[in-house]
Design the sequence.
């Protein structure tokens, strides 16, 4: 029916999400174990929900500051300095209605029709779609999977940046791979972007989900100057189990505040105050929750990757970050068909690798932010198809 209406051809041509296609095939099936979306199985902790309840009772239900409540922005400033050991003044922080909204704000600021964005892939499909919504062209720079996990050839990334390139997009820790860009590589990318006059958009939503004892993964904030062309995107969704709340933030160079205030005003007119108060509680009281989440996911990662490694056709490496197993299946060339068959034969929902761009076909993504007993059952079921 869409073809009958006069809408932008680029919007009409946007591909459907392969993850949603697979999920729609499995929704509503009795006994299915859904591991296809990027969220855990625990609800938002009580101290966050109670903060939202109090905020509603206290009247935080009206229009509010477009760039976010001042107390929340101040807390985020202190949080970023504590985690990344670099000062991030309040005037560089804008609260958004989700990390995805922050990505869209970045694309709206930077991308004109025909502009290119170099995107390290495999990557969350919404990133490339956000570029296309603006009429831009995402240029994928595929990583490679070897014995040391996923790696990025920086020279390949730099070579992908041509005369129409406007920005470089990096997601670290990565969805779906769990790859973490080393700090030295971040410094090289920032120096290249500075020399070429390019923007860097860094999606650091999974920054706290790392398994080597660090407080957080390296951030581009640690290697950039305050006035560099850098936008760092973050979210409350993963670290504090707030996927449904739609709350995020972005860090930009000083001076972009009025531009972002306009963009927020003309899109959402601001994030609900009571949700921001919940986010404030997450930052102020949430460190024990984050630590428990990391340890829970570490155990789940070891269980899942150990089981998958025992399947003869599966190639998997435990990832250093995020909460996904992104594994390749030998002989499979249609990951959507494979994910659909796994639903039919094993009642386990996985995301098809084709959704994540070049290098993803033939692979599947499994979110292991779940109870160990549920994951054990999922592994037993997957053995019917992959074992």
Sequence:
């Amino acid at each position: 029916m869409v073809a009958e209406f006069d809408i932008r051809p680029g919007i009409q041509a946007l591909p459907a999400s392969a993850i949603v296609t697979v999920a729609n095939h499995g929704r509503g099936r009795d006994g299915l174990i859904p591991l296809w979306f990027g969220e855990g199985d625990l609800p938002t902790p009580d101290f966050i929900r109670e903060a939202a309840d109090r905020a509603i009772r206290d009247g935080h239900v009206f229009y509010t500051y477009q760039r976010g409540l001042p107390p929340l922005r101040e807390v985020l400033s202190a949080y970023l300095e504590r985690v990344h050991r670099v000062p991030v003044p309040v005037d560089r922080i804008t609260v958004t209605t989700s990390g995805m909204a922050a990505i869209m704000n970045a694309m709206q600021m930077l991308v004109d029709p025909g502009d290119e964005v170099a995107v390290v892939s495999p990557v969350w499909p919404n990133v490339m779609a956000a570029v296309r919504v603006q009429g831009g062209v995402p240029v994928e720079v595929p990583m490679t999977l070897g014995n040391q996990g996923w790696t990025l050839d920086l020279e390949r990334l730099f070579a992908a940046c041509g005369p129409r390139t406007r920005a470089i997009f990096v997601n670290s820790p990565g969805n779906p791979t769990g790859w973490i860009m080393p700090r030295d590589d971040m410094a090289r990318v920032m120096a290249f972007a500075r020399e070429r006059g390019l923007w860097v958009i860094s999606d650091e939503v999974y920054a706290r989900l790392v398994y080597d004892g660090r407080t957080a993964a390296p951030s581009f904030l640690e290697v950039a100057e305050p006035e560099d062309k850098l936008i760092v995107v973050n979210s409350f969704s993963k670290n504090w189990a707030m996927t449904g709340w739609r709350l995020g933030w972005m860090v930009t160079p000083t001076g972009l505040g009025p531009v972002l205030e306009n963009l927020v005003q003309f899109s959402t007119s601001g994030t609900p105050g009571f949700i921001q108060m919940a986010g404030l509680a997450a930052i102020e009281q949430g460190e024990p929750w984050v630590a428990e989440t990391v340890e829970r996911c570490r155990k789940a990662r070891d269980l899942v990757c150990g089981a998958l490694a025992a399947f003869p056709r599966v190639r998997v490496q435990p990832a250093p970050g995020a909460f996904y197993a992104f594994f390749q299946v030998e002989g499979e060339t249609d990951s959507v068909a494979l994910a659909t068959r796994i639903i039919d034969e094993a009642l386990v929902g996985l995301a098809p690798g084709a959704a994540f761009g070049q290098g993803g076909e033939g692979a599947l993504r499994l979110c292991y932010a779940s109870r160990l007993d549920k994951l054990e059952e999922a592994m037993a079921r997957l053995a019917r198809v992959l074992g």
Observations:
- The chain has a mean pLDDT of 96.
- The chain has 13 helices and 15 strands.
- The longest helix spans residues 287-309.
- The longest strand covers residues 165-171.
